[in-house]
Amino acid sequence: MRHLATLFLKVERQTTRLALWAAMAFLVIAASLAVYQVTTRFAFGRPSTWSEVITRSAMIWSVFMGVAPAFREGTMIALELVQNALPRKLGLALYQVSMVLTLVFFAVLFWQGWAMTERVSSQTLAALQVSIAWVYAAIPVGSVFISIAVAGCMIRAGQGEWPRESGDNQMLAEAKL
What is the pLDDT of residues 45-62, one digit of tens each? Predict the structure, then answer.
């Protein structure tokens, strides 16, 4: 069982790193296209018709991909104040219950996001001839990455890595070139 947990944590580390890189890439795309949009609108007086749509889409993907590394790093809104005030075992139990509820939430979000993606697949983005389903797909795809990261948090907590020390930015340090 320990070997399976170790294997899962290795997979989780890689998938969360992938999610972090994707979130950063989408954020760079969104920022670059926002600058382009402002430049074409105000410097040239001819606003781009497609850049605003892609900027919004990239921001949506950036958020959904960025939540997985945020969970892994412990930077999501937490019950830390309450958890740390309780005896260690009770605080850990509260942490695990909150993570189970988080998994349930993202399972429902995956299911509903998948259904929504299928429903809008015949619609296209404004100014582009691309299915809007590509934007909505961020919901189920992000939910999978988030669920993997949350399960990893639960395993690490069960192995004694709870509570996390503040300032633990290991993933960001690992993501550097």
Answer: 998 889 999 999 999 999
